[in-house]
Design goal:
single chain
Length: 225
């Protein structure tokens, strides 16, 4: 299947998912995957900044939290907070990049599956999160070994489109000061450790998200390898 046909198919399926019978049963795990990308963004960036990624928790309602620590300055705290917000967009970019070619897509599914299993062993905690993330890892590994190259391409392209759309369906979080209860949202944390109000940082991250997604779509549709 040509790339632009594959991209269009994934986009149409994604937009109509909520309007077809039993579409919830597919859209729900996709929502959870975007939460995993968000929280892993926080945790992995904390590691890159010299800190510690202690645990990732996720609940059945789609909420989650990454527990990390480190001797971070104000700028580093802001970077770690922003990494979670950009996590789904970056994951979408990687998925679309891998989906450009069949063998690359198969390897991408295998790497993603192994990453999910390693995360489950090392940092994922709770009752629900290990079940979901570990099961996702097994599913991705099975697909990488048993599915055809075209199915591998479709799977990653569909995941990429879904993660991209999740950046918009959950974009209200970019313009709120709290993350449930009295906890500050990610953009509020950035505002507290830098300057300017939370909505400015929400708008800036929204623009960066659009740029990442546009580059991912452009790279996927571009001719060549």
């Amino acid at each position: 299947m040509k790339r632009h046909h594959l991209f269009l198919l994934c986009l149409v399926l994604s937009l109509t998912l909520h309007h077809i019978p039993y579409g919830f049963y597919l859209s729900y795990p996709l929502l959870l995957i975007s939460t995993v990308a968000h929280e892993m963004g926080h945790g992995l960036m904390a590691l890159l900044m010299g800190g510690h990624f202690h645990a990732l928790e996720m609940h059945a309602d789609g909420s989650g939290v990454a527990h990390y620590s480190g001797r971070f300055g104000s700028l580093t705290v802001a970077i770690v907070a922003a990494a979670g917000l950009l996590g789904p967009a970056l994951a979408a970019w990687l998925a679309l990049w891998a989906a450009r070619q069949g063998v690359r897509a198969r390897r991408g599914l295998a790497v993603s599956g192994i990453a999910c299993l390693l995360a489950t062993l090392l940092v994922v905690r709770g009752v629900f999160a290990p079940f979901f993330i570990g099961g996702l890892g097994v599913l991705l590994l099975v697909l990488s070994r048993k599915a055809s190259l075209e199915v591998c391409r479709f799977t990653l392209a569909f995941l990429g489109v879904q993660l991209g759309l999740a950046c918009f369906t959950r974009s209200d979080y970019l313009f709120t000061r709290t993350a449930g209860g009295d906890l500050p949202s990610d953009v509020e944390q950035i505002a507290q450790h830098l300057f300017l109000p939370y909505w400015f940082w929400g708008g800036l991250i929204a623009i960066l998200t659009l740029l990442v997604l546009a580059q991912g779509a452009r790279g996927f549709l571009r001719e060549g390898r």
